[in-house]
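Hi X.,

You mentioned you wanted examples for the new student's onboarding notes, showing what a folding record looks like when two proteins sit in one file. Here is a clean example. The first protein comes first, with its sequence line followed by its structure tokens.
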Amino acid sequence: MCDKLVVVFGATGAQGGSVAKALLEDGTFKVRIVSRDLGKPACKDLEKLGAEVVKADLDDVELLRAALHGAHAVFLVTNYWEYHDKEKEVQQGKRFADVAKQAGLQHVVFSGLENVYKLTNGKLEVKHFDGKGEIEEYFRQIGVPLTSVRLPFYFENFKSSSKPKKLPDGSGYALGLPMGNVPMHGMAVADLGPVVVNVLKSPEKYIGKDIGLTAGNWTCDEYAKIISKYTGKNVVDGKMSADAYEKLGFPGAVDLANMFRAYTMNILVRDTKLTSQLNANVRNFEEWVQHNKHVFDDL
């Protein structure tokens, strides 16, 4: 282990948890995890694995300064979905960037995304993408050494927001991805950790880069057939349109519909080869379903 300290934000969540565990397993860096609630079981578990655990909040400058004291690098994730508020997410990201600059961080690996509004000249707004794009720009504008890792659709979404829904006639289950016949990139968020570890180990190669991650791309019909193959359940493409998805009415439905519209526009760059170089064990969708078919037991 070297003396370089990496601080992981969001370590009790899916992304940060994957990164913290991978760093601890790798052993190259000292690891400090940050949480607003130190009583969470995930904090205790990571502490047992060797992480230092500190309390901090992206809304509190003094706690951020303390959390970054002595740090070499940081993994940062911001959360649009907590408040459904792009401006708040951007404020938090910029506040962190200012503190990172003052702290003299050598490398920030940020879970970013494209600014779709900018890429489409204002024709399409995807707030949970656009805010992260603005944060990326700000880091670079003030001169903080940044690598952005841009995830695709999470396979884990098939456990929750994109879980197949029972067909009205009871003959099977519909997968509601409004993609038509356009393949959609995907990856297990649990496979992010080794990617970030390898980025942190080679800063000279990755600082200044935007890394579009993916384990591959599949159509809605192909996703459905793979789920069917390993669960024995009849899962089909629900043939949902983005307009119909938007009208589902749950919080964030419009933003997610616009995300799917962006996915169909071929404006988001994802790189299967680079992803597998950064994580040689990244799983494709078939491999992920094989290991997670139990999540479809209660359809």
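Then the second protein repeats the pattern, sequence line and then tokens:
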Amino acid sequence: MSRVVSKNLFDFKPAGKLDDDVAAIYNAMEEGTFSSGAKEIAERMKELLGREDEEANKEYIVLFRKTVEVVVDMVDNNPAYAGVAERVVTSSITVPTTHDGEFDVPVEVYTPKNLEGKKMRVGYVYAHGGGAVSLTAAYERNPLSKYAADNDLVVFNVDYRIAPETRCPNNIKDFYEVIKHVHTNAESLGIDPAKICIGGESGGGYICLGAMVLLAQNNNSNMVKLAIPQIPMTDDYCFSDPLVMTLEERKEHLMMRKIWKHYIAADWEEQKHDPHLFPGKSSDELLEKFPPTIMVEAEFDFYITEATRFAGRLRRAGRLLELVIIPGSPHGVAFIPGVKGCKLHWDVMDTIAREYIHGDF
């Protein structure tokens, strides 16, 4: 593959500290005043991080899923999404798979009303966040509907199976099969097969990266015009020495160790060097086969080191178009309504849609 050429559209200066508005919200979360019972749950989860027995792991994942419900509430109650459902036609498809039993992957589809019935539209296949162990596609229905309507995209919001009920590599294979389905059935879906893009954030960023590994391994990267992993779980950096980590990485490294080792991995010893589990461990030769990529990160994300390191390798391999780092922002700022970083994130995503998804490069 020929080297991609960046338009160099983003050059934000680091803030050096969290924006004041989002810092206040994060402080409330840490103090347990953001939602009822949050402090007690956080304390119990901290206790469970020190244990690796099956009983502790079962309790921890239940509590983890409860904590992310706060994020769901923030997204659902964001006034920026008022009326967005009226701007799109919401439908659904299922994609049959056999890689982990017979399972039809549910996919929500958001079509801007002005594109209804038209052909050769741009498709955006997306994996929701949640650490690959929580949430469903419905969590990002509102922001993705708005993104579709604002940018003339048909969005395919994939409800891939999550861990630990479904483990690596079958979760990334769910997403990969949907990409193939959209490409194979582009004509009937009204999609231009040359304009299929993929993305995902956080755990969904990992799912996106894992699918990129499969695309490269199967010489199918030509199915994808552009990949946009955002704040992605990338490799096993959380297992390194906490003394070299950023503050945010150090705070969350035990949580991430548990998630990778006890929930996502099917066989830790067998898979810990496998790029299906850790896409950041892809060989240089494999990276050269990746789709063109834009990596979107946040200055104070707890995946910042692993994601930017991987972006550097993609640049060296000739597959990186842009590395965007939202200044003054933490993990998940795109879903914190009313803060500066949230607006900047979606401004960036709109620019990506205009200049890269719809534009030539």
